[in-house]
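Data availability (excerpt). The following record was deposited with the supplementary files.
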Amino acid sequence: MAVFSDPVLQQAAGGVITSVVATTATRLGVTLRGLGNRALKEDEEIVKWFNTYRITESTPQLSELPATITRNELHQILESEEFHASIYELLAARLTDAPDREVEKIRQILESVLSYSTPAVDLSDLADALFGYYDNEICSIVGRLQGASPEFLPRLRSEAFSARMISALRALEKRSDSYRSADPKLDRDFLRRYRNHMSEEYGKIEPPDFDRRRRVPIGDLYVTPEITEMGDPHSSPIDVWELGRRIDRTVLLGDPGGGKTTASNVLMHWNASRGDRVVPFLVTLRDFASQDPPERSVVGHIEHTLEVVYQCSPPRGLISRLFLAGSALVIFDGLDELIDTARRAEVTAIVERFCTEYPMVKVLVTSRLVGYDQARLDDQYFVRYRVGGFDTPRVSEYVRKWFTQEEGITSEEAESLATAFMDESASVSDLRANPLMLALMCILYRGEGSIPRNRPEVYEQCASLLFRKWDARRRIHTELRARPHVEPALRHLAHWIFSRQESDSAVARGALIRETAQFFHERGFESYEEAHEAAEEFVDFCKGRAWVFSDAGTTARGEALYTFTHRTFLEHFTAAYLASVSDTPEKLAKVIAPHVAKEEWEVVAELAVQMKDRSTDQGAARIFRSLLNDRRYTATESRSNLLCFLASCLMSVDPPPSIVRELCQSCLSHLWRGNMDNPQFFGPLLLLIKCGGTYREIVASELTSKIDQLAASGNASDRIAAIRLAVWCNPRSGTFSRGSFVSSGTQVQSFWDRFNESHVHRFTAEILEAAERDSGFLWLALDRGLITLEQVLKTPEDFEKLTTNGHPIGVFNTRWSPYLPTQAIKFVKAAGEVTEAQKQEMAVVGKYLRERPSPPWVKSDSAHWVAFVSPRSNHESLQPLEPDTFLGASVLMMIVVELSGDVGFRDGSPRDLGYLSSLFPYLSKRVSPELDVELPDLPVGEELQQAMRLWARRQLDFLEERDS
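Predicted structure:
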């Protein structure tokens, strides 16, 4: 056996373990976050150890390569998803103490992977050598894990977070069988054709338009939205390409028209266009779940779609083999389009069972934010991301790209139009932040030279452009017998499609004509035969408009299927139907109430309220009053949903102040029915503060009245609750995700900041008293300067609670990060903005540490910090800190690293640490012990200098284990 000396192959071989271990750590990390208090400190340490694992100089001992396989071919095998899957299965087997027969299956599968990749070459000896090497490496890892925490492996084997590894082992037999009948040449030929087809199919996006169908290359129009991880307030925004790299078990949530489906299509193209990425498959859930129960399995549905829609039948067993090997991505698009919540929950269960059957496959599920919680995927395995609205730079980029695509205008004219659009739309920046609404506004601006100011007007102008102006130019209306009934028919059909029992919004042409004929017969045609002929004409008329009906495939008998091109239009016309058939606002309230109470139809209901308010005197006020007084929905969840809906409606309608006052009183009464940290109780009030900007004075007066009432009561808990509300009732508080993305304007935000500040001064004495026993009030007292850090920092217990413990505020389910590390991080993240007061606080910490120079200084806890270090150009001009200030900030930063590992500096440079740039080699050495770096002298005392060097070499910790 000779040493495998090729450096490129060494890197690939070593990288397999690194990649597989990092993937395992990420999956365990997601699960541990979901386990909450059940996850012990050592579990987090294990996950950190996984993430920072580095292959040393060890390389596999391999015989000489067969002459018929090249270095590049072996390199590709070692980097393939199929090979990584085998190593992951081997790691799962050793971590879960699987029997030897399971390990032998994995060895056989690894040999099958090599044979499948190079069928003409006998690589059995090479397979044995590789398997032996990786098994030895993994056994060493497992042994070190057992030594680091003897309880970890037994708990891993018994706790829920081993489920995915066990699923991987249970799938071994299926994966082994999948290679027996495989024909590598047929598979490769199919994948080449399929990738080419998908790359072409999804390489262009189709923006909404009225007079023509346009398919524009992705790069010429697409603008990636900002995407953030939900549930982690410290996470940094990413783009769609980074999301593509992170997908494992992933959910992408967003608002209507926010770009979820477009992102799915872009990810399809991104993965299909390169052979070294996973093979992407798109499952449109409204098609998959068109029958109850679904007609086919997920794999069967994909195979059927490939055969019928794309005329590209896959080789037998290939799709399952790709899923079992982790070589595929399945995008389940449009969970929200399953209108019935029970049906949505059934499909969610199917997706979870699919993930269990195919534990290696990558999965992305898209859904609207509203209603997701009613059928959410298991947070223990799925990470949620949210698509945000376009900020001004993204709007500008999209608008310039959009006008550049216009035919018949020069680049200078396109630039001029884009500039004028940006100026005119500045007053409705909330509307243009939505990608679909932005596209519609561009169309309207092109045709009308003006921009509507709310969504109903946008849709109404769209209809006007289609039916009264553009079609009139082409004289289409003169040939349409049912022209007077076109818009009423669209409303009727939209409601029929939206509310029928089937979850699929696609309708067969025959059914669509029959429903339309019935509608016409009851109105403008005496004979059914005439109505039927007019209905055929109408359907053909609508299918020719890209924004009304689009082809959605065919039935099994070959009959054409149609659906509304954009769900937003389906919802608009459904809302118009509800508003038109409800004679009074009270009747409309009764129609929407049962759906809103179940968190259904919220977009449709809000649009209907807007329309009724515009067509009926005091329409919104009467709907609000009816819903507020509706005694059918008094259960906590139903009442919370109704109040949240009404609070959200304040973004689009303007009921009288008395109604808003009544709404606020109802929200406060609801809050006091339960736990102030439970979203079902605090959600309506928080949404009212976020959405009721123009009514802020009324809301503030009702809040003050409630605060006064409780503060004057003899009940101590009520008094403290009132103070919490007084000082933290603010749009910035809470991470409650409900309804459309709302960004409070600076004027609204400043108002609530002043509201809080006035009550801080009013209740200063009570806050200081509460701060002695309540961590949230302590944070507030320090942040507002009601007490100095020197007054607080007297004992190790005080230092510890400000360093490793979060600060729950007791309302809106908000917990501020530990106070001292948060302040220290500013010396890195926002160095140019650090104030003298903050420097003084770090000096107090430095003095405290000098007086206690022997670590550990705190007991370890479960605090975790994500990456926050990033290059900042203003770091070069920073003046050196005073010694005590530097010491305080440095030790706190080192504690953060000890708690969390790399926080983003590993690939950076010293300057990225701002004021703490000289600490860079110490932190680098701590997270990567193998690094050979010099540890320069720091401006601290000799005793502390020695402690910091030992810390960097992992010979000393600044934290000790907390007693269980």
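Summary of structural features: The radius of gyration is 31 Å.
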